[in-house]
Amino acid sequence: MPEIKVDDSKCKGCYICIEACPKKCIEISKEFSKSGYYPVKYTGADCIACQQCSRICPDLAIDVYK
Ligand code: SF4
Ligand code: SF4
User: Fold this and answer.
1) Spacing, Cα 58 to ligand 1 middle (Å)
2) What is the span of the domain harbouring residue 13?
3) pLDDT band, very low/low/confident/very high, at 59 (cuts 50, 70, 90)
């Protein structure tokens, strides 16, 4: 099953990956990261490994696994 992993230490909370995801499977975490942002996280379902999110992330915070 495809999935993404977000590196909380790199995510700056710009949320453009949420807009870019065609399957709406990225959401904002309710917990602060150590860097002081609310990072994004995988919702846990529906990822198709299209890599739109990882390509658009300016901080290279998302890895996609097929
Ligand atoms: S695009 Fe990158 S930095 Fe912006 S919210 Fe998504 S993971 Fe975080
Ligand atoms: S790889 Fe595609 S479907 Fe999966 S979270 Fe990223 S944008 Fe969404």
Assistant:
1) 7
2) 3-65
3) very high
The finding on whether 47 has its CB within 6 A of some atom of ligand 2 is: yes
| CATH number assigned to the domain comprising residue 27 | 3.30.70.20
Q: Can you tell me the distance from the alpha carbon of 60 to that of 51, in angstroms, rounded to the nearest whole number?
A: 12
Domains in the chain, number: 1
Q: How far is the CA of 27 from the centre of ligand 2 (A)?
A: 11
Question: Residues 20-55: pLDDT tens digits?
Answer: 999 999 999 999 999 899 999 999 999 999 999 999
Listed in sequence order, the residues at least 6 apart from 53 whose beta carbon sits closer than 8 Å to its beta carbon are 4, 17, 20, 21, 26, 62, 64
Rounded to two decimals, the pTM is 0.95
